Amino acid sequence: RLTEFSERFSARVLEPMKGMALGPDVVQAVTTEDRLTMRLRVASRRQLGASTPRPMAPGNSQASFQIHQTALNNMVEQLELNGETMTLPELRTRLGERLRWPEIAQRTTENDDVTITFAEEDAVRVTCDEGLVTIDLSIACLRKARRAWRDFQVRVSYRPVVDGLSAELVRDGVVKLPGRRLSISAQGALRAIFCKIFSQHATREIVPERIRNHPKLSDLAVTQMVMEDGWIAFALGPKERIARAESEQRAK
Description:
This protein is α+β, with helices and mostly antiparallel strands and 252 residues long. The protein has helices spanning 2-19, 69-78, 88-98, 102-105, 184-197, 209-212, 240-251, and strands at 25-31, 36-41, 63-68, 85-87, 115-118, 124-129, 132-144, 147-163, 166-171, 204-205, 220-228, 231-238. The strands form three sheets. Strands 4, 5, 6, 7, 8, 9 and 10 form a seven-stranded antiparallel sheet that branches. A three-stranded antiparallel sheet has the order 3-12-11.
């Protein structure tokens, strides 16, 4: 099973990173009697890494990971979206090819006739702080049918929702249009488009279904899911009632 996990991890994570010149480079790998710890640098030679300490996982965690926003932004930068003009299907095709995730390219929306020209710099930025994952888009031009809107920004935030072994990111509030003031009609039209692109009903699952529904993992739960100081920190560990029962036994 470890071999199967290693093969899946390599195919879905490591190979796409290598294809985008993101390494990953092993910073540290340590194995003890009860724990395997690995630190990876996800960046090209010219990109920055994390500059703040990672959040610590609970001591009784069975599995945990911490991802800094620089890793996400480095990956976005390697998608080479700055200054590009493309339709939504073309954007999904690029994401599917670069991330080795063909399911993305197969999706369709009612806004597939939208054409986006991204800004020349910082077209997409990800921020992880204050309990939210925030995505900022800088758009030079967006066209739909005969209408066009120029030089605006879009901001959408996601918050974690945890229930037992399930953890997902759901959209937090409305899609925002920061930056220069847009007319009321432009705001209404753009919000209608991006609220469908970033649908409130489309959640982002963190824990794969095979783990959520595995009978041998029924005693575990998500014990950490935080976004702070640039980090996303996640951990699986004993459910509260089990941890409490163990502490009671030690007290006896």
